[in-house]
Amino acid sequence: MSAPWRAGEPKKIVIVGLGLIGGSLAKALTQNTPHQVLGMDIDDDSLLDACSCGAIRGKAGPEDLKDADLIYLCVYPEAALDFVRQWGPKLKEGCILTDACGVKKLICQGVGELRGQGRYAFVPGHPMAGKELSGFSASDPSIFVGASYLIAPGEAPAWAVETVAALAKAMGFGRVVYTTPEEHDQVIAYTSQVPHALACAYVMSPRCRLHKGFSAGSYRDVSRVANINHVLWSRLFLDNREDLLEELDELQRNLQTLRDAVAQGDEAALQDLLRRAAEIKRSEG
User: Fold this and answer.
1) Rounded-to-integer distance, Cα 56 and Cα 268, Å
2) Rounded alpha-carbon distances, angstroms, from residue 66 to 58, 87, 118
3) How sure is the predictor about 118, in pLDDT bands with cuts at 50, 70 and 90?
């Protein structure tokens, strides 16, 4: 299989899916690397906008996919697997295929089953950046600055992993974190999926409609990600069902412990719980 990319050598990169993450990747790669960046999207308006602002050089066609040096799959997990099923056998030898999906076990298992005679190198990835808006119009390469880029290398060749990591650094990511699909999904359930579930549950209170004039930073911090892409996040929740349920159960147990202390008027127990929480936050950030 092909050797590592040589520094400064322009390559052909195709980004499949020009939403928030795909559009931001396109802009960051175009601004910070010498590579030719092309795009694919089912929404013609997103393609037009991406071309008009210079995020991509043009729309990628079938021949571009066959000739691509690297392909980013920035679509829903099932759509990513559909792409691999259709195009995997047609990609050239040494093409790096990577993804930006928020779950890794499903993707890694699926690509492994579909690999067949594919000659590409698959590097599972996850840019840990985003915001509560979606679509190409919300794309912004500055969301990557200082953020973490997760890679679950698996059996990917070292040169392909190094290439994806180097591109992440070139785009402004602050660090590359190496993990396994299992660790990724377990920790992401806690750091990303539970906060989204919590925010949605929080704003479902009838008091949410009364918050104006009574709310400040605490309300904004907890409720921010409730402005959610419901199609994407429902899929991510279900694709990571076991790990998410484990974390939701943990959250419920902790909330119940706090509730019991309040219900019983046990100020000593309540202070101890809040003190422990504050110590954990100060220690872990």
Assistant:
1) 60
2) 16, 8, 12
3) confident
Contact (Cβ atoms closer than 8 angstroms) between residue 273 and residue 261 = yes
Chain-centroid distance of CA 97 in Å reads 16
Tell me the torsion sign for CA atoms 160, 163, 169, 171: negative
How many H helices and E strands in the chain? 12, 9
Write out pLDDT tens, residues 1-49.
Answer: 555 666 668 999 999 999 999 999 999 999 999 999 999 999 999 999 9
d(CA 123, CA 100): 10
The dihedral region occupied by 77, where left means phi > 0, alpha psi between -120 and 50, and beta the remainder, is alpha
The model's pTM: 0.91
- Cα 235 to Cα 15, 29, 230, 258, 275, distances in angstroms: 21, 28, 8, 31, 36
Residue in this structure with the two tokens 């919300």, named with its chain if needed = 138
Q: Look at residues 137, 125, 165 and name the one whose alpha carbon lies nearest to residue 55.
A: 137
Note the pLDDT tens digit of each residue in 202-247.
Answer: 999 999 999 999 999 999 999 999 999 999 999 999 999 999 999 9
Helix axis angle, 194-203 to 241-263, nearest 10°: 50
Token pair 């050239």: residue: 92
Q: CB-hemisphere CA count at 13 Å for 144?
A: 28
**Torsion-angle region of residue 130: left (phi > 0), alpha (psi -120 to 50) or beta?**
left
